[in-house]
Amino acid sequence: MSAGQRVLVVGGGLAGITTALDCAAAGAEVTLVEVRRRLGGAAYSFEREGLEMDNGQHVFLRCCLAYRALLARLGSDHLIEVQPRLRIPVLKPGAPPFVLRRSSLPAPLQLAGALARYPHLSARRRLGATRATLALIWAGRSERAGREERLDRITLGAWLARHGQGEEALAALWDLIALPTLNLPAAEASLELGAFVFRRGLLEEAGAGDIGFHRGTLSEIIAKPAAHALQAAGVEVRLGWRAEALKRTSQGFEVHGGGAGERDGCSADALVVAVPHTRAASLLEGVLGDRARSFGQIGVSPIVNLHVLYDREVCSEPFAAGVGTPVQYLFDRTRAAGAPPGSQYLAVSLSGAEREMAMSVDALRELYLPALRALLPRSRKARVEKFLVTREHAATFRAAPGVGALRPEAQSALRGLVLAGTWTATGWPATLEGAVLSGHAAAAAALRTLGIHRGESQAPLPPVLAGTAAEAPGGLA
After folding, report:
1. Within this chain, do residues 287 and 305 fall inside the same structural domain, yes or no?
2. Is 344 helix (H, G, I), strand (E, B) or coil?
3. Residue 86 covered by a domain
């Protein structure tokens, strides 16, 4: 190893894992430090009361090429599956189930038939939703000519209201997509990010929005195979190591911290900080000043997950969305969790869950078990064996208007100091895809600092990124 080719990655989530693998494959000497005793960052699993649970239901889309390529690189892509065609069962209390599914027509017509039959909006409102959908394709294009406000200055809900979409349409249709992808309702989310999600997932390519699922736990799919892949790539991994302070040196950077009662330091020619923005703000304040402090203004948005074990099967769908109910999405995780034979374990995912964060477990139980009985008739005769709650206060960055101006590029103002994570300027909201894209961009920036060119042995980037790793991936829209 020649001098001047050391990379230190702080953070062992998807962004840090991707960065470390890219840099190691290009020939750099890489060390990755992670404060937790596991890899995976915000996507992790844990055992509770005999069940293997994921902290959240992290689905993805067919168009998430970078994330899917990372799993192939880790050798765990056999534990995921993607729908042949988009299919979303929609449940409403007192109404027959309805399935939103795409047809074989090209985009954006693939959902026209399903929208025309959608029973939870009147015929007039369905027509209005169709018009708003078509207008969303062009959102932002006239803005470039100065005829609209910048997309990041208004909410998706306000823009939809201008196009005839009231509160009923937002709740019954638009939030089915906005809540799980933006972790905010349309009424609060940035139009820029909302328009990106709808265009990228539904309006530009017919199959882009087909939903992908993890058949195993996140530990099986991400954490464990990542540990093996990093070891095979020659990356030194230090778990339980907390980065506490960093400083710039004549050779690059030093990071001080440690774990297990020890304090030590790591030096590197290029430093990649791949931790959440709230942590990055305090860690980097000494070297980036006001710019680092601005990261704290990005804000956070919570997610609450309810874990309900029934003594029998109560839902025949692998997942479903709720309308007219506090239940947003529910997922059958029986097999992955290792639930007892004959039982069914449903995970209820609640995005933008500020109200639920403040509720006690008893209050959540009193609200959501009756809501589930209203949606799932078979649950009315079932016994609830377990009702558990997990909360992520800072699950994602807050995808509100103005956030775009706060998200930094991978390359910081200091040569050799690189940023990664979903909160950086990937163009995507806080998703698995955004995390991996940020890792590729960070690796490219670090390698440029070191003067290293990508080696032929390095795993190829997804087609959408090939040849453009040095560019900000925000152009994907």
Report:
1. no
2. strand
3. no
